[in-house]
Amino acid sequence: MNGRTAFDLLGPLPKGTTVLEASAGTGKTYAIVGLAARFVAEAGVDPASLLLVTFSRAATKELRERTRERFASAAAGLADPSSSRDPLVAHLADADPDTVALRRRRLLQALSDFDAATIATTHSFCQRMLDGLGIAGERDPDAVLVEEATDLNAEVIGDLYLSTFGRGGSPSLSPGEARKAARAAIFDPQAHLAPDDADGTPAADAAAFAAAVRAEARRRKRAVGVRDFDDLPALLHGVLTDPVHGPAACRRVRDRYSVVLVDEFQDTDPLQWGILRSAFHGQSTLILVGDPKQAIYAFRGAEVLAYLDAVGAADSHQELTTNWRSDAPLLDALAHLHGGAALGHPQIVVHPVDAAKKGSRIGGAVPLRLRHLPRAGAGPLGKTGFPAVGPLRGRVAADLAADIVGLLGGGQTVDRGPGPRPVEPGDIAVLVRTNAQVALVHDALDRAGVPAVTVGGLSVFLTPAARDWLWLLQAIEQPHRSDRVRLAALTPLLGRTAAELDGAGDDAVAQIGGRLRDLSAVFAQSGFAALFERLAAWSGLEARMLSRAAGERRLTDLRHVAQLLNEAAVAESLGLTALTRWLTDRMRDPAIGGVDRSRRLDSDAAAVQIATVHATKGLEYPLVYLPYAWDAAKNPKPDKLLLHDADGRRILDVGGPEGPGYNERKKRHDDEEAGEELRLLYVALTRAMCQLVLWWAPAYSTKAAPLHRMLLSRRPGELAVPAQERVPADPDVAQRLSAWAGDSELVRVEAVGADPIVVPEWTPPQEEVGSWPPRGSTATSTPPGGAPPTRR
What we know:
Elements: E1 5-6, E2 17-22, H1 28-41, E3 50-54, H2 57-79, H3 87-92, H4 97-112, E4 118-121, H5 122-132, E5 144-146, H6 150-165, H7 175-187, E6 192-194, H8 202-224, E7 226-228, H9 231-240, H10 246-256, E8 259-262, H11 270-279, E9 285-290, H12 304-313, E10 316-320, E11 322-327, H13 328-338, E12 354-357, E13 368-372, H14 389-409, E14 413-415, E15 420-422, E16 428-432, H15 435-447, E17 452-454, H16 464-477, H17 482-489, H18 498-504, H19 506-526, H20 528-539, H21 541-546, H22 551-572, H23 576-588, E18 608-612, E19 621-626, E20 641-644, E21 650-653, H24 662-685, E22 688-696, H25 706-712, H26 730-741, E23 747-751
Parallel strand pairs: 1-10, 2-9, 2-10, 3-4, 3-8, 5-7, 6-21, 8-9, 11-12, 13-22, 13-23, 16-18, 16-19, 17-18, 19-22
Antiparallel strand pairs: 14-15, 20-21
C-alpha cells in the first residue's frame, strides 16, 4: 500500500479496505455520516446492507442520531439544491434531474427504513451475527447475555483458591494476591499469562492460578448458560475462522453487509480486527476510521498494533487534514510543541493539519502558556534533590486556582458566538491524569469560590461526599469517640468549622455526640432514609449547601451517596456496622456490585469542568488547563505488567516483582507505557479550542513525564521522544524552556516563584450571582454564553 493521501469527502467513493486517519478535531463523525449518505444516495446501497460500528453505547447513540440527521438534511437540501449551502448537497445535485430525484428518493426511503441499518457497538454486532448465523454461530441458543459475570467470577476465584491452597501448610499466594492475579487475567482474556517458565515459584503459582480461573470461569458460564460481553468477539472469531464452517459463515455475513464503516478503530484489538478481516477485507467496502495518536486504552485490551496491522493490509490509507476545532494560532503553538513527534511508535506521528478557524477567538491572549515551578517552596528536598511530590501537587493546584481567579476577573474575552464576551467558569476545563488529582483541583477551586464540577463518569464513591458519609457513619456507630465526632462535625453534612469546635470546647463535641446517638436510634427504628431526613432537617443541610459556591454539586453527590446507602441497607438488610463496611469497600473499589455509581450532573454548564483525560476523549473546551502533565509518579514495581513480546504477542505478567524475568518484562512494559503517556498528552492538548495553560514542576518522577520529555528531550520537529530525560537544575530549566519557546509570539513561558501562593477568592459579576439554571432547577438547557463541550 502507498503512503497516506488527503481524504476528500466529495471525491470517488472508497472501494476495498480503506484506513481513514482522523486527527483530533478533524471531523471524523461528519465524514462517516457523509459517506453513509453518499453510499445510499449515489451507490444505491440499501440501509439494511449498511453497517456502522463503534465502541461504546454513547457513541453508538450519537452516531445513529447524526446519521439520521445527515440523511434528512441531504434529502431536504435536494428538494431545492439552489437554496442549500451544504457542499454534500451540491455534490449530490451535480447530475441530471432524474438522477437527483432518484438520489433524494433513496435518502427518503432510507429514512423510512432507517431501523434496518445496523448501527451498533462491536459487542452488539457480534451478538447479532452469532444470532444470524444460526447453528453455525450459536453454540448455546439459550445462553443469557450479561454485561459482566462478576459474581460468578468471584465464586470461581474463591472455590479454586480453597481447592488449590486450602489443604494445609503455608500457601504461596495470599487470598488477596490470588484474587488480584485472577481478576487481571479474566479482565484481559486475550493476553498470554506470564511467567510461564518458572515452576515452583510463587510467581508461577500466580500465573497458573490465574489461567485455571480463566478456564473454570469459561466452563461454568457454559454450564449455567451465561455469557458476558467479552465472550462475544471470541465466539464470532472462532466461527468465522473455523476451518470447516468459517468460509460459509463469512459469506453469510458479507451477503448481509456490502458497506462497513468502523469508528474509533484505534481502540480495536487483534480479535476484532480478525473478525473484520475474515468477513470483509478483500471482499466488501470496509472503511476503518481512527487516530492512532489517540490510542489510550491499552489497559482495557485495546491494541494500537492491530490498527497498524490494518494499515499495512489496507488498499488505501487516507487522512482528514483540516482541523475544525482549534484556532490557527493554537494549532501553530501545538505544532511547535509536538509537531513531527512519534508517539510511542515510528508509524504514529503528529502530522500538520490545516486550520478552518484562521483567527483567534480569545481576545489578545497567548494561545499556549507554560508555567514552571522551582524546587524551592514545596518543603524540604529529599535525598534525590527534589521536593516531595505531594506538596508540589498542592502548590500547582493553588497556582491553578489563583490563575483561574485572575482570568475570570481580568477582563479576558472569548468569542463562542455571536460575539466576544467575558470568560466564564463554564469556558474552562482542567484535565488531569488521576481521580486523586481531580479531587485536589476541585478542593483548590472550591476554596477559591470558583464553581467546579467533575465530569466524565467519575464514580460517586471517589468523591468527597463518600468520604463525608463514611466519617459520619463511623461517628454514629461510635459516638463516644471524640475524634470521630470531630471529623463528622467538620463534614458538610453537619457543617461545623474547626474554629467553632475549638471555641466551644468539649461541650460542643458532647452535644454533637448526643445528636449522633439520636440518629443511631432513628436508623435502628426506621431505617437509613429516616436518618437522612432527620439529619438534613437538624443541620439545615440544603439551605446551607446551596448558599455556598459549588454547593449544588456537593449536595447532589451527598444525596446520591445517601440514596445508594439506603438502597443497600434495604436490599441487604444491613445494620449500621455492615453499612459502614459496605461503603468502605466501594470507596476502595467502586466497581463492586454494579450499582448506579456514576456521578449525577446538576447545573454543571456554568462551572469549571474537571475531568481525567480518558473521560474527555472526543470533547472540546475553549480554554484547557493541564496542571499535572509533569507528574509521572507511580508504583515503581507494579504487581502486573502489560507488554508485547518480540513476536508482538500480548503478555500479562501477574507474577509480581519477585518473579523470574520481571525486570526484562518491566522494561518492555515501561517503554510501551511511555508511548501511551505521550498519546494521552496528545489527547489532552487537542481538547483546546482557543488556549492551553500547562505546568511543569521538578519532582523525581518528572524525568519520565510526557510533557517534560516532549519539551526537553527533543528539538521541535524531531521524531523520537525518549522514555526518560534528566531533570536539569532550576537555572538550566528556565534557560532551556526559554530557548524552547524562542521568539515565538504563540508561546509564553512564565516562572512561578518560591513564595507561598496566595489564592484570592473569586467574586462573580453581580448579574451572574447564583447558578444556571437557578438553584433548585433541574433544567439542563445551555446557560447564556456558556455552551457545554461538544463532540466532533
